[in-house]
Amino acid sequence: MAEIIQRDGTWAFDGSTVRITPGLSRSVPLFRRTYGEVSVPLEAVSGITFEAEGRRGRLRLRLREGADPLLQAAGGRLPDAADPYRLAVDADRCGAAEYVVEEVRRALLLDRIPQGPTRAYLLPGPPVPVSVRSSDGTVSFDGSRVRIDWADTSDRVKRAAGPRIIGVGDLVRVEWLPNSGREGGFLRFVTRETVSSGSPGSSGSSGSPGSSGFSGLPPEKDPCALDLWGSARRDLLTVLVATAVTARLPHPTARPEAAVGPPGGHHDVLLRRLRELGELHRGGVLTDEEFARTKAAVLRGFGTGGDGTG
Fold it and tell me: N or C, which end of the chain is more exposed by having fewer CB within 10 Å?
């Protein structure tokens, strides 16, 4: 057993699994304490390094591409302090850190672990049900469907439409951009309907969020997105939901995204969306100006230059 215990957490390797446990100190980021222990099977590891940084050092575990739904959902945007695969090491424990590195590397060589991408997730992601309250509302996932309950501060169009419920079977991918504290972020659920509409946000992977989602709407008005603008520390927890959903979607290597959505459904989706906006306008939820602006965004998202039907 190779093990290193630090204030920020403990790493232990038994020859087949790297067990990473967050520390109990309040200095450990809320996300790490909430995400909890991570067990990384050796076959998910691509490498491990220890880098000296002045009086301290840093352990870093690298996973094979496609092995972890957390890294897939975060798309490289997880802050370093919240990354479970990094550990700050005190100077007097550098020897222990180097021993962990040596043991993991030896096991990788002996077991001939490939370094290339995986074709399936090798880590399970967080358990469900999982629920997170964000600045724009509460998002929950029970393993089969996502539910968004809007906050009192959400855009009134979202609040008027009521809770949003999306089945896993209707999802293509999840897009997540963290709230940095200086700039807002979002958690967006891209559905088959969105993709069939041909919106600007319908291409790419869960690691490459587009600038627009449902019919070209910005996150604050997108009924399939949470607009993250409040506490960066709290909003970061939304990646828990993004990860849990991502783990239950087809692996990126098996996603035929270009074929998603019913053929010829573009016009029907456009008409349905315009009817929804029309009802909100007639009901007094949208002002004339808001209706015109949102309608224009919908038409742009569908690649339509005219006024459409509504």
Answer: N
